[in-house]
Amino acid sequence: MGAHCNGDVSLPSIHSFACSQDFRFSKHIHDNVHGNIYLDPLFLKFVDTEQFQRLRDLKQLGMAHMVYPGAVHSRFEHSLGVYWLAGEAIHKLKTHQGFELGIDCFDIRTVKLAGLLHDIGHGPYSHLFEREFLPRVHGGRKWSHEQMSVKMVDYIVDEHHIDIDSETIKQVKEMIVASCGTSQAKSSREKHFLYDIVANGRNGIDVDKFDYIVRDCRACGLGCNVEFQRIMESMRVLGDEICYRYKDYLTIYKLFATRADLYRTVYTHAKVKAIDLMVLDALVKANDYLEISSHIDDPAQYWKLDDTIIKTIETAPDQELRESRDLIRRIRRRDLYQFCNEYAVPRDKLENFKDVTVQDIVCSQKNGAILREEDVVVDNVKIDLTRGKHNPLERVRFFQDYESDEKFSISDDRISHLLPTSYQDMIVRVYSKKPELVGAISEAFENFQVKTYGIKAQVHATPEKKIRRR
Q1: With b meaning 16 or more CB within 10 Å and e meaning fewer, what string describes 26-53?
Q2: Annotated catalytic residue within 145, 161, 192, 390
Q3: Is 70:220 a contact under the CB 8 Å cutoff?
Q4: Is the CB of residue 424 less than 8 Å from the CB of residue 388?
Q5: pTM, whole model, 2 decimals?
Q6: pLDDT digits (tens, 9 = 90+) for 1-39
Q7: Is 145 an active-site residue?
Q8: Contact 59, 73 (CB under 8 A)
């Protein structure tokens, strides 16, 4: 005789899943980076909302797909990847040090949820919205996607009546803003090492970077040898801080170096930036009419804003959007702002460097003042290893071996002399909005370099075929 059950079969409660590695009652999604990702019922309640699904319409790399056609992945899959890696990281710590650290179901739940929701407040076109569009239309006002993520978390919980305790939500929000300067006060709970997992404000090593570096390299067809699994395996908490084996310092350095390479070859690629600058101008010109920036403090309206704003501009017949529409059509037809030239700021000038402006270039023309400020774009590009001019390894704490309880940092004189002595590049680029002005702008740019540094700091002259292009 088979077993007989008179009552209903009850499944484990929502909150018990956060502590369990039994995936039988979880929804699984196959990710092209991490394989199967399992979503427990609590996390599905957040994923299955229109606010989270909006992330499907936010490209992770903005307009980079116009240069790297495969870079069409979205913040949706990135958020799932960070959720999964956050869970992997805390489960590893629990396996190796769970008893001494007191890691419980609450900790696992909050870390995974913070990973899932860390990007929920992003605006259209990657960081273009936050770092370039909003400063143009709102001046010096401070706004960050992390702070909007915090507001969105509260809004989703209230709007969808998600049954979750307030202490979990409080700590999730603290973890989301842990890496930004406006970080909220940490919870009264101990275990501050938990804040190192998703958004690490101490040294920049976190699962957010693990995911986007590998995912972005894959999408752009670039090789990536960042061994994030090796880094995660070596994690150990000492003095309430996640530390790493000394023998893995070059693996960690490679993480920072790969991020810098992505900035140079993808995120700030000269042609990608040309397209970004055109999108920026289109959004700025359309802002008053479409009121794009009017809801940046209201999650109920903000979540409706995504990358489709460009399609709205492109297809709308409104006369008020004509200039913006023309810019989008120029992008479609590959009639882009023309890259004229660039130079890297000399190392001895980095300390007192001030952003080069359009006025600097226009005022440097000599023969007949034909250039106007609206014809020129200047892009000041900073590329570093997460800590500006400082060695990022100095903020990382290491241990010698698993028998040792001493943690220490590595100074420049104790590591390989093959590593760079400078950890930051500042690149100045100029673009022409009109092809026929490339020659004049390039000449003015060279004049500015000679006036500022006494030399032409650029590597090569602007090609004649680009100057002659009409």
Answers
A1: beeeebebbeebbbbbbbebbbebebbe
A2: 145
A3: yes
A4: yes
A5: 0.92
A6: 334 344 443 334 444 455 656 677 789 999 999 999 999
A7: yes
A8: yes
